[in-house]
Amino acid sequence: MTETERHDFDVVVIGAGGAGLRAAIEARELGARTALVCKSLLGKAHTVMAEGGVAAALGNVWPEDNWEVHFRDTMRGGKMLNNWRMAELHALESPDRVLELEEWGALFDRTPDGRILQRDFGGHRYARLAHVGDRTGLEMIRTLQHRAVSLGIDVFMECKVIRLLQDGAGAVNGAVGFWRETGRFVTFGAKAVVLATGGIGKVWKFTSNSWESTGDGIGLALWAGADLIDMEAVQFHPTGMVWPPSARGLLVTEGVRGDGGVLKNQDGKRFMFDYISPFFAAETADTIEEGDQWYDNKKDFRRPPELLPRDEVARAINSEVKAGRGSPHGGVYLDIASRRSADEIRRRLPSMYHQFKQLADVDITTTPMEVGPTCHYAMGGVRVEADTEATTVAGLYAAGEVAGGMHGSNRLGGNSLSDLIVFGRRAGLAAAERALGIPGSSEVSEAQVADVTRHATSYFDNEGTENAYAVHHDLQETMQDLVGIIRVEGELLEAKDKLAELDQRAAKCAVEGNISFNPGWHLALDLESMLAVAHCTTLSAIERRESRGGHTRQDYPGFSSAFENVNMVTRFTGGKYEVAQEPKPQMPSELAKLFDEEAH
Amino acid sequence: MAIDTGATTSSPPAPLSEAPQQDLVMRLWRGDASGGRFVDYRVPPQEGEVVLDVVHRIQAAQAPDLAVRWNCKAGKCGSCSAEINGRPRLMCMTRMSTLPAGEPITISPMRAFPIIRDLVTDVSYNFEVAKQIPAFKPGPKGPDGVYRMAQVDIDRGQEFHKCIECFLCQNVCHVIRDHEENKPKYAGPRFFVRLAELEMHPLDTLDRREYIREEMGIGYCNITKCCTEVCPEDIHITDNAIIPLKERVVDASYDPIAWIGRKITRRPAPLPASEAWKLTGAAHAQPGPARPPAGADPAGPGETRLGTGA
User: CA-CA distance, A132 to A253, in Å (whole number)?
Assistant: First the structure.
């Protein structure tokens, strides 16, 4: 058996983006011995790429804003599939979490009276996003990183967790990973484990997500017997770069539209006015004149349709391109050059200016950007209990993008960064409380550890020519083509078959070279969780025979009452993926009343 | 197909001139702490690529175990730092079209850090320095329970917060680039930026000046601006962070009025936020000492001295 390094902690947090950092900080502050394990260097997680801002009803710019409005916007944005309690907690607590970041050193942009400035984003009734230019995620991760370092939290950098360990009763009591640098295995004993592993974007070909977004936590939870929900709900962000090819998928922040940018087709037409769905008609401007006045007067005018929730805008762009009205590289135009001064664009959107200048040689202060949908965010994920982020497996918690429920079938921009800090904190708190109530240290099963390390190193013993990069490439093509933004049963069934073939190929991947910092081996292991994501997404997508939010079925357009109160639950039992429809939690009447009123 | 050229100095494998779709020759450093060499890889060019794309294509088709760090591929995470044709840059933000055509493109790992494997270096030194930085310590909130800061007072701090921790500035800093022995007593440009952001933070109450001089070794920097030149975020590291820090440290150490003031008050009153950093500017850009000034400890006995490993 391969010898492993051994550590014991109360709480082990897997993932060091916003949610993981916030969970670790909370657990540490409560006195739990806490480890933070991340597969990149500290401070490089995908949170760093978040641009536009963090949504919180601070009411600094619009005093009319409050948690109830934020709650309502979030639920409507998610097409009511959200876990109502998570949406409520999120709206209630995000202002405190944002102000807390300021106490830890964050420097948000300011209002003239010195408070935190807030910007407009799609689906939010009021300017609500606290931000730092267009690099809010960097500010957040650095602030949390400094805080975590100052608390002396043990950080295991470039350490990838492969499997969770469980006691005889099934409770999670540890994890096995390896140091990427040396390949040496590490066993963590833990009384509670928090999954904060982020997203799944690398399963698709065109994605805004970073290298890390391989759904590791989805796999870990699934293999430990936890439930996933609503995996079909995948957000394709409407505005990713489409050119040059190597930059395809890179995010263009919604802040461009929040700050006045508009979408045009090749004829120069603001086509979004043709795509206002009845669900949002009451709150959306139907003329250019009204939309343009909204930026300065939100009380008397309705917001322009460019700021509809992301699923609506992504579908509209997709339709324009399909109808042959797209830009030369298969996108549409996002124009801020004709709408705002060059100085203002450079000041408000410095990263975007930089990104287009450097990667596409386009000056966004003079030239419209070419943009198109890109895989951005998983609304679905590990099923959690709203108040504690406890999964359906004892000792296991999940927070941030890896958890499902908060965003329903579509996430509003800005609600992710706030999700991370609201539920990261709650997960850290619940995990620490559990861990501190269990005496002694956890007894992990050496046999389980040996099974995991034997499996992980088996790729070095495989013979043949199967290569993890090729399997990954084919997986991305399959999901992009067959389980993309618009879905249809025949293609989904075809995807299911192809995934079964890819499972076989992935198991045969042969790894060259030695075990020290070997990306071919790392990818072979990442493929295990990516395939789990692909299977669950495809099964859920087949089962949800309606279109809702980030799940659009060409063969079942529109909402279906049969599915409006249903979560798609996926599990991995007896070596097989299973899907089941289960009722979603029902909102209490006092909250339901918020939706009876007129849309303002 | 990999062509092992054996050494850095070997001539390019073949003249690359006539054919329009001539293969690129990527000369990558392969090896680990025990040694290594440059290996040439030939790949067909593709439109609009950055260096990292080509490295990925080599990894996928020719060298699956090629070690390279990367995350976002968008210039936001600072993971893919390397030396491209000898120049420290982010691989994800270096377009192939900006490099000389028809010549091999050399990619080597950052030189200031020990090699782990191929293009991946051990940057743990930076994370160790980060642990020593005395944390942000805000003063009390305003009467309405919130902090107020004017945008003008945080503009400079926001410039520093742009840092993506690519460590290219650390890599080119001559104090440590070829002087491993200086690392234990020198924080490097990245952390002078970090210290400057804390010192200039309108809400912060801690005085780190003595610590910056004694423990962080700011005197070693002699303002050659190499760090500023390579910063992918265009942070004016030397002018806006290091020089003002040096001035602050010098003021704290040698200004007789400040010294008496400290004796009387034990601790200098924090400057009002809007006044604190108006000193910054070219007029104050004087070369600092090449070594930390020797001599008596100018800190008053009543001052809290911040040690390392806090």
Answer: 13
pLDDT digits (tens, 9 = 90+) for A546-560: 999 999 999 999 999
Angle between the N-to-C axes of helices A136-150 and A18-29, in degrees from 0 to 180, rounded to the nearest 10: 30
- Give the three-state DSSP class for A333: strand
Cβ count near A369 (within 10 Å): 25
Angle at A588 (CA atoms; ends A587, A594), nearest 5 degrees: 80
- The first and second tokens of residue B284, run together, are 């104050």
Closest CA to B127 of A507, A155, A302: A155
A105 contact B CB<8A = yes
Selecting from B69, B158, B165 the residue whose C-beta is nearest the C-beta of A107 gives: B158
One of A257, A411, A425, A472 is an active-site residue; which one? A257
Q: For chain B, state the CA radius of gyration.
A: 23
> Each residue of A486-512: pLDDT tens digit?
999 999 999 999 999 999 999 999 999
Q: Would you say the C-alpha torsion B284, B287, B292, B298 has a positive or negative sign?
A: negative
Angstroms from A478 CA to nearest CA on chain B: 18
A394 token code pair: 């004892």
Complex confidence, ipTM = 0.93
Residue of chain A with shortest Cα separation from B150:
A114
Q: Which residues contact B304 (CB under 8 A, 6 or more apart)?
A: none
Cα A198 to Cα A179: distance, rounded to the nearest angstrom: 20
Residue A473 catalytic?
A: no
Other Cβ atoms closer than 10 A to A439: 6
- Which residues, other chains included, contact A74 with Cβ-Cβ below 8 Å and sequence gap of 6+? A82, A87, A90, A91, A407, A408, A412, A415
Instruction: Spell out a b/e string for B43-59, using b for 16 or more CB atoms within 10 Å of the CB, else e.
Output: beeeebbbbbbbbbbbb
If you count residue pairs, one on A and one on B, with CB atoms under 8 Å apart, how many are there?
160
CA distance B45 to A403: 41
| pLDDT at residue B257, rounded to an integer | 67
Is residue A160 within 8 Å of A180, Cβ to Cβ?
Answer: yes
Residue of chain A whose Cα is closest to the Cα of B136: A105
Task: Say how far apart CA A450 and CA A444 lie, in whole Å.
Answer: 11
* Residue of A72, A237, A248, A505 with catalytic role: A237
Distance CA A411, CA A579 (A): 23
Could you count the other beta carbons within 10 Å of the beta carbon of residue A16? Answer: 33
**CA-to-CA distance for A319 and A263, rounded, in angstroms?**
13
Q: Average pLDDT in the B155-162 region?
A: 96
Interface check for A330 against chain B (CB to CB < 8 A): the answer is no
Contact residues, chain B, for A138 at CB < 8 Å: 76, 161-162, 164
Residue A380's Cβ-count burial label (10 Å; 0-12, 13-18, 19+) is buried
* Tokens representing residue A217 in the block: 């936590």
Q: How far apart are CA B116 and CA B34, in angstroms?
A: 9
A329 at the B interface (CB within 8 A)?
no
Interface contact A355, partner B, CB < 8 A: yes
Q: Contact, B87 vs B95, CB < 8 A?
A: no
Tokens of A437: 């109530």
Chain A residues touching residue B109 (CB < 8 angstroms):
none
Is some CB atom of chain A closer than 8 A to the CB atom of B199? no
Inter-residue contact A39 to A63 (CB < 8 Å): no
Instruction: For residue A257, indicate whether it is catalytic.
Output: yes
Beta strand A369-378 with A234-241 is antiparallel
Task: Choose among B97, B67, B99: nearest CA to B85.
Answer: B99
Spatial CA neighbour of B190 closest among B259, B238, B250, B135: B238
Q: Are A467 and A509 in contact (CB under 8 A)?
A: yes
Q: What is the mean pLDDT of chain B?
A: 82
What is the model's pTM? 0.90
